Amino acid sequence: MTWDWNAVSEFMPHFWDGVLVTLQALALGSLIAFALGLVWALLMRTPTRWVRWPVGVVTEFVRNTPLLVQLFFLFYVMPEWGLTMSALTTGVIGIGLHYSTYTMQVYRAGIEAVPAGQWEAATALNLPRLRTWQVVILPQAIRRVVPALGNYVIAMLKDTPMLMAITVLEMLGQARLFSQQHFQFTEPLTVIGVAFIVISYLASLLLRALERRLVH
Amino acid sequence: MTTGLWELVLKGIWTTVQLLVLSSLLAAAVSFVVGVARTHRLWIVRFLAGFYTEVFRGTSALVMIFWVFFVLPPAFGWQLVPMWAGTLALGLTYGAYGSEIVRGALGAVDPAQKEGGIALSFTPWQRLRLILLPQAVPEMIPPFSNLLIELLKGTALVSVMGMGDLTFSANLVRLALQQSAEIYTYVLLIYFVIAFLLTRVMRGLEKKLKAGVGKAPERKVTAPEPVGAGVGVGGVGGGAS
Q1: ipTM topping 0.85
Q2: Contact B180, A77 (CB under 8 A)
Q3: Within a domain: residue B146?
Q4: What's the CATH fold of domain A16-169?
Q5: Structure confidence by residue, pLDDT tens digits, B72-128
Q6: Is the pLDDT assigned to residue B14 strictly greater than 60?
Q7: What is the predicted pLDDT for the residue at B222?
Q8: For a Cys-Cys bond, which of A95, A140, B184, B241 suits B237, CB 3.0-4.6 Å?
């Protein structure tokens, strides 16, 4: 086994470019996943099953099929339907949509965990429905689910390499490009492997600190 | 789509199923060995098992696949058949997630059960085999069921390495037909059907195992643990608590 430090130092500038794209995709994807997940969770609570049923089927479908195929679908089918987006945008939407079906269940659990007394108090105070959600239910529900949402951010981080398959040059994409140009596979792949472990470990430490503050 | 292209898709399904079966067997073996090792009385065994889990859970499955395909061959001088390389990468990664499930379920067995085993002077191996595992395994089935679905989704990753699985055959069909909506819709549906069948099988298995220890399967709704959850945060309870 040969290890070439020169290759590592040559790879480093590309590596940082990749980290930037990865984190960008992660941040935007998380925003979509958090927002859309909340929308799904609220739609699943509407009284008519004509809303609940389609939302349930669609989210179940998205959750149980591979993100990679979904990315291919978005990347190749959307332009056929006349909607052309950049690879990174496609990837962010794909990853956000996929994980929104997970965060939706987290929100649901959080909403269900709000004590019934809170609902009753809101009714007793004659709060309108929208206001009940805004100031009573959601602040309590979201506070509870922050750690679980954070777990999904870490899970998303580990799925960002899939964006490479739709030509996004994130960490793995940069590593592959560099390997193919220089015929050195060991160093770049090992560097990003270690980088993933380090980033997800730091993120988990951050998450634990956040959890202590929020959930006490 | 012509019959020739459907044949391609069928071959893809076969490869995906083979890979799924092999890697889930490896993942199950790794889960139990590492999960049980994390409850071992020697600290060095616990440490090594914990280290394994942290490393393999910390990195991405796709990066691991690249590593097994490109770094292992020159490093050790042997080239793996793609099927075994894919099995190895997926089995080791998902086995690390599974080991957390095994450890959690072993830890959740009533301590009095273990003490009872000690009082009856069972050896550690007997305690594990006759007391802990029969009670812990039924509890593992629902999380393992989720993990199996994640593994099914993970098998799509090997297509990036040019292995002819279902996703790869979809890409070939797209190139052949120059249109993508139809084939990708079919392939997503096929994955969904496989996932649905897997959950049914696992539910049946849970029922059977729970009946074996005199418990009825409970159908409570909880948020699933994120399978990709990061290093060391597996214990974060989520919103349901």
Answers
A1: yes
A2: yes
A3: yes
A4: MetI-like fold (1.10.3720)
A5: 877 777 778 889 999 999 999 999 999 999 999 999 999 999 899 999 999 989 999
A6: yes
A7: 53
A8: B241
| Token couple for A163 | 């964006």
**How many structural domains is chain B composed of?**
1
Ranges in chain A, pLDDT < 50: none
CB-based contact A197 B171, cutoff 8 Å: no
Q: Domain range for residue B161?
A: 3-212
Sign of the CA dihedral with B92 first, then B94, B100, and B102 last: negative
Sign, CA torsion A143/A149/A154/A160: negative
**Radius of gyration of chain A, Cα coordinates, nearest whole angstrom:** 21
Distance (Å) from the alpha carbon of A92 to chain B's nearest alpha carbon: 17
Query: Distance (Å) from the C-alpha of residue B214 to the closest C-alpha of chain A?
Result: 29
- Report the pLDDT value the prediction gives residue A57, as an integer from 0 to 100: 94
Set of chain A residues whose Cβ sits within 8 Å of the Cβ of B160 = 68, 164-165
CATH code of residue B125: 1.10.3720.10
User: B24-61 burial, b for 16+ CB within 10 Å, e for fewer?
Assistant: bebbbebbbebbbbbbeeeeeeeeebbebbbbbbbbbb
